[in-house]
Specification:
It is a single chain. The chain is an alpha+beta fold and about 130 residues long. The protein has a domain of about 90 residues: Nuclear Transport Factor 2, Chain: A. It is about 15% helix and about 35% strand. A hairpin with a 2-residue loop joins β3 and β4.
């Protein structure tokens, strides 16, 4: 039998045509879980009740840092304050900034506060009534 010569199929890509580029997978960090639930009304209401003299400062010991408790103790006066509106924002995952409007006698005042998640609970680390 005589040998048979066959032409091979083209095995090189044509000139000027490139293979498709497959993108490499990129590592994407997992999303941060939401912050633990914060009872902002309770924190602000308790601090306002301390300022009004309706609640002893000692009851804030599990919610407020000692410097905040000291400032509240020094500013306590007998009066009536009512919470009108409260807004909460989270500038960081474990930080909450609280802004509120309150009515004291015939005036409407602003309240600014900051709470941080530490040791398994929310702590009031700043509190100020802007008069």
């Amino acid at each position: 039998m005589s040998p048979v010569i066959r032409r091979l199929a083209a095995y090189e890509p044509p000139v000027g045509i490139t293979a498709p580029v497959i993108p490499r997978p990129r590592w994407v960090p997992p999303p941060e879980p939401p912050p633990p639930p914060l009872d902002a009304h309770r924190l602000v209401r308790f601090a306002l009740e301390v300022l009004d003299g309706r609640r002893p400062v000692g009851q804030l010991s599990g919610m407020a840092r000692p410097p905040v408790m000291g400032r509240l103790r020094s500013r306590t006066r007998i009066r009536s304050t009512r919470l009108l509106r409260l807004r909460v924002s989270h500038p960081a995952r474990l930080v909450a900034e609280l802004t509120a409007t309150v009515r004291r006698d015939d005036r409407v005042l602003a309240v600014a506060a900051r709470a941080e998640w530490r040791g398994g609970r929310w702590w009031l680390v700043e509190f100020d009534v802007l008069e």
